[in-house]
């Protein structure tokens, strides 16, 4: 087994997968919620402009 294989098996060991999954889910949830906030604010701004005119 070469050193790179050892590193890869350590990175992708079953014990670390749940933690990696949690990290990805947390990051994507934060990103999605931020995106939703921005989209909602933009839409509200457009609706206010439309109703104001």
Overview of the molecule:
With 53 residues, this protein is an all-alpha fold. It has one domain. It has helices at residues 3-11, 17-52. The radius of gyration is 21 Å and the shape is rod-shaped.
Summary, kept brief:
The chain has one domain (3-52). Helix content is 85%, strand content 0%.
- Helix count from the secondary structure assignment: 2
| Largest sheet data | none
Radius of gyration, in angstroms, nearest whole number: 21 Å
What is the overall shape? Answer: rod-shaped
Instruction: Give the SSE string.
Output: HH
Question: What are the SSEs and their pairings?
Answer:
Layout lengths: L2 H9 L5 H36 L1
Offer a few descriptive terms.
53 residues, mainly alpha, 2 helices
């Amino acid at each position: 087994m070469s050193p790179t294989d050892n590193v890869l098996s350590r990175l992708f060991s079953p014990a670390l997968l749940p933690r990696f999954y949690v990290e990805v889910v947390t990051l994507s949830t934060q990103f999605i919620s931020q995106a939703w906030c921005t989209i909602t604010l933009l839409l509200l701004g457009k609706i206010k402009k439309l109703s104001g005119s």
